[in-house]
Write a structure and sequence with these properties.
- It is a single chain.
- This protein is α+β, with helices and mostly antiparallel strands.
- It has 3 domains: 119 residues, no CATH class; 118 residues, no CATH class; 256 residues, no CATH class.
- Helices cover 42% and strands 12% of the residues.
- It has an 8-stranded antiparallel sheet.
- Helix 10 crosses helix 16.
Length: 520
């Protein structure tokens, strides 16, 4: 097909999308006039939304196939169409002849010649998402209507809807019409639907008032990292018909289901439960940003030798912050801060009005800037001591003193096979260490979860906001297919297993190992 025909087809598909969306908005308002959308009415709206999703999927697919110059022409064409559509549309006289949602027979006929049927044959699914578990772009590309909303009747204007009603009556319907979250449209009813799913289905502590705040965005980021197969790129936004939405509403299932204890696969033994508590306490430190208001913050990773000079320069430029840091103690100042030390540092800075952005991300970046962080061995040793004494304080009586990954590898007790792993063991090489917090053996397969502090962007929620490209503490899931050999290790990436290197060894910090390390 020539570029000209391809561009004409894309223009036709965009016209179909605009017509369907206009129809969807019209009937949504019509059905909602009595304050309630019944199941039959919602089913009709869902059918229209399904048609929109299929056409948009086909649009994305066809646009990806264009060459550079064709993409430029297509972008200008789309912009012109949107401007023309906005200038010519009359709110009081919309054309809704395209779909009559009150007639059952119209659910699939309309738009059947729009090219979307090819999507079913090629992709094998109608959910508007790419089945690849490592697809980093679905949520970015799954809606093309951002420029059209203002030309309708104003019902999609999130800033208006969020302030026009102080009474929460709960969401109407169960499907969002537009984007929710960071940089989203944030229609009040859409936000209510997302908030209800996040809280009732997935257990996230978010409000139910229909407005997007830091807690909602952080919950979306965590959900994207944990369940939605978007580990390498969380954007904090849920788009109608997109990847995150498909997982949130249950159309797509994560590789590992929801666990009440917050770990990737659940804790069974007492040691595993204790380490699940440790991972939560270290990975999301509760900071009082206002009286009675707490925000969860992950400590960042860095403070290697290459970062020390940068951090010291930042401290020198801010004497007020540096004065607070100088009272923390050497280890807390040099990449091995305890949760208690991090909490006190941030709350002292907040009390002196030294932090402008008191969101979860803002506090993480403040820690990163001034080098109050937690490196991998600092976390590992805190885990060992937590198992011994049950607290996260740094004390002279701690079972094992601060050391590095190389010493853990050289002086830890060797573990010979995957079947011998237990919670509390270490996955280590001379440069990095992870703490095993859960082990599950099923036949020949041994799967386990680790918690670590690292610089990788796919480690935890947040998408890598630290100076090193990562932002700190997070969990990973691993497995060996043979319980007798440390060979062919696999790591869960998104919602698919992938081969990983075998350069790690496995060590136990038992009493003999502690004695060897403390003697160094």
């Amino acid at each position: 097909m020539s570029n000209k025909k391809k561009l004409e087809k894309l223009k036709e598909l965009r016209a179909q999308v605009r017509s369907f969306k206009d129809t969807n908005d019209h009937y949504y308002q019509l059905f909602a006039e009595d304050g309630n959308i019944d199941e039959y009415e919602q089913a009709q709206l869902d059918k229209i939304a399904g048609m929109i999703s299929k056409i948009e999927t086909e649009l994305d697919k066809r646009e990806d196939e264009l060459g550079f110059f064709a993409k430029v022409k297509n972008s200008f064409s789309e912009l012109g169409e949107n401007i023309k559509d906005g200038l010519s549309r009359k709110d009081d006289d919309p054309d809704h002849s395209l779909v009559d949602p009150r007639e059952e027979d119209n659910d699939t006929n309309n738009g059947s010649d729009d090219g979307t049927n090819d999507t079913n044959d090629q992709n094998g699914s109608n959910d508007g998402t790419n089945d690849s578990s490592n697809d980093d772009t679905n949520d970015q590309n799954d809606t093309n209507d951002g420029t059209n909303d203002d030309t309708n009747d104003g019902s999609n204007d999130g800033s208006d809807d969020n302030s026009d009603d102080s009474t929460n009556t709960g969401p109407v319907g169960s499907v969002i019409k537009d984007s929710v979250g960071k940089d989203g449209k944030n229609d009040k009813n859409d936000v209510l639907i997302v908030q209800k799913l996040l809280k009732d289905t997935w257990g996230y502590d978010v409000g139910q008032e229909g407005t997007v705040d830091d807690k909602v965005i952080q919950a979306i980021l965590k959900f994207q990292h944990r369940y939605a197969g978007m580990i390498r790129k969380q954007d904090g936004r849920i788009d109608a018909g997109g990847t995150t939405w498909s997982y949130l509403c249950g159309d797509k299932k994560p590789e590992l289901g929801k666990q009440d204890d917050g770990t990737l696969a659940g804790a069974e033994t007492e040691t595993e439960k204790k380490l699940a508590e440790f991972a939560e306490s270290v990975g999301e430190i509760q900071i009082e940003v206002n009286p009675g208001e707490f925000i969860g913050v992950r400590p960042p990773y860095h403070q290697n030798n290459s970062r020390q000079a940068v951090v010291e320069a930042e401290r020198a430029k801010n004497p007020a912050v540096n004065k607070i840091i100088s009272k923390m103690g050497w280890n807390d100042e040099h990449g091995k801060a305890t949760p208690g030390a991090i909490k006190k540092f941030l709350e002292d800075c907040i009390a002196k009005s030294l932090i402008k952005d008191k969101s979860s991300t803002g506090l993480n970046q403040f820690l990163d800037k001034f080098g109050i962080s937690l490196d991998c061995s600092g976390l590992a040793i805190q885990a060992v001591n937590f198992l011994k004494d049950g607290n996260l304080d740094r004390e002279k009586s701690d079972a094992v003193q601060i050391t590095n990954a190389k010493n853990i590898m050289n002086y830890g007790t060797k573990i010979s096979a995957p079947k011998d792993l237990v919670a509390g063991d270490m996955m280590v090489n001379k440069g990095h260490v992870r703490v095993i917090i859960d082990v599950d053996i099923n036949g020949e397969e041994v799967a386990f979860t680790t918690v670590e502090s690292g610089a990788s962007v796919d480690l935890g929620y947040g998408g890598g906001s630290g100076h090193d490209g990562g932002d700190g503490v997070g969990e990973r899931r691993w497995r060996f297919s043979q319980k007798s050999k440390f060979e062919k290790c696999e790591r869960l990436k998104g919602n698919a297993w992938a081969s990983d290197g075998n350069d790690y060894v496995y060590r136990r910090i038992d009493d003999a190992a502690i004695k060897r390390i403390n003697a160094l």
